[in-house]
Design a protein that fits this description.
D-Maltodextrin-Binding Protein, domain 2, single chain, 5-stranded mixed beta sheet, elongated, 3 domains, Arc Repressor Mutant, subunit A, alpha/beta
């Protein structure tokens, strides 16, 4: 009985908001980043950590370089504290319905530069019908840190090509597409004939990728057939590559939805079927598995899947 009374007294003496600070510091491993996530000043976070240290009589987080690392006690506390906060959040969420005009205030979506121009205008147009004051941020996707960014709330969703992800990330297909090839209409080898595999392999090519090095997406498929192209130029944006196509005799292998988006603005280009049989690709919507039942995530997921599939 005395032990139970001591536990109740211990819980009564601690501000439950301190556990939010604990969880955020544990995830961020840095007090400055934790303060940014919590919308608190760094002195306020340091003061909260001092109160936690006093309560548990343990340092909890130890300085290490530019950040902090959890103590053995913090590592033992972490799973139960994080789970308890999730349960409390779900309990609060269940007490009211999600009303976009009232509750949809901030949304951050990560996507590649190449698809921002296609997806973002439609997403903004659709979601601001529900709340004109919505603050929506589009940021560059970071595949290596996708789990971290979703779990900490740095981003709410990611839109990206299908790739392997950790078990804590949920995803659903939102779009499937095929590759086509474009050239300028006056291309000397293609003005009066169809694009053949031989012409494709002999030609010089332009590729598009936001990464500084490495194979682009379509070359992964081509390499499976032992095919290697001659790449002359590498661009960050599809529109830049299309402009180069209008001025040179290069070819550009491009997703069908991309050229559908740009084609009307570039009457000088000609679209050809890809003369090599390779698979298309799938675009997925990604989100944090633990947040699947949150009202805003569930509602926004439905809306985003609808918007992108319609495109």
């Amino acid at each position: 009985m005395n032990e139970m009374n001591n536990n109740v007294a211990s819980l009564a003496r601690i501000d439950l908001n301190l556990f939010r600070v604990f969880v955020t510091i544990y995830k961020e491993k840095n007090l400055t980043r934790a303060s940014e996530q919590l919308f608190l000043s760094q002195p306020a976070v340091s003061h909260a950590l001092a109160r936690l240290r006093d309560h548990f009589n343990d340092p909890l987080f130890i300085r290490d370089g530019h950040g902090v690392v959890p103590s053995p006690l913090a590592k033992r506390l972490w799973p139960k504290i994080e789970q308890s906060l999730q349960l409390m959040h779900q309990a609060i969420q269940s007490t009211h319905d999600f009303v976009p005009a009232r509750d949809l205030k901030h949304l951050t979506i990560a996507m590649t530069d190449e698809y921002e121009g296609i997806f973002l205008p439609s997403i903004i147009q659709h979601l601001t019908q529900f709340n004109p004051n919505l603050q929506l941020n589009s940021v560059r996707i970071d595949r290596k840190n996708l789990r971290y960014e979703l779990s900490t709330g740095k981003i709410d969703f990611a839109i990206d090509v299908q790739h392997s992800v950790e078990d804590s990330i949920d995803y659903e297909c939102c779009n499937k597409d095929q590759f086509v090839v474009i050239s300028r209409k006056q291309h000397p080898l293609l003005s009066s004939t169809d694009l053949t595999k031989e012409i494709y392999l002999d030609a010089k090519h332009i590729t598009v990728s936001s990464r500084p090095t490495g194979r682009v997406f379509e070359d992964f498929f081509l390499s499976k057939q032992g095919i290697k192209r001659t790449i002359s130029f590498r661009c960050q944006q599809y529109e830049t590559a299309i402009r180069l196509i209008t001025q040179t005799d290069h070819l550009l292998t491009i997703p069908q939805c991309q050229i559908a988006y740009f084609k009307d603005n570039y009457p000088q280009i000609k679209v050809h079927p890809l003369p090599i049989d390779i698979a298309g690709y799938q675009m997925n919507l990604y989100w944090d598995q633990q947040k699947s039942h949150e009202h805003q995530i569930a509602w926004c997921k439905t809306q985003l899947l609808q918007i992108i599939s319609n495109l």
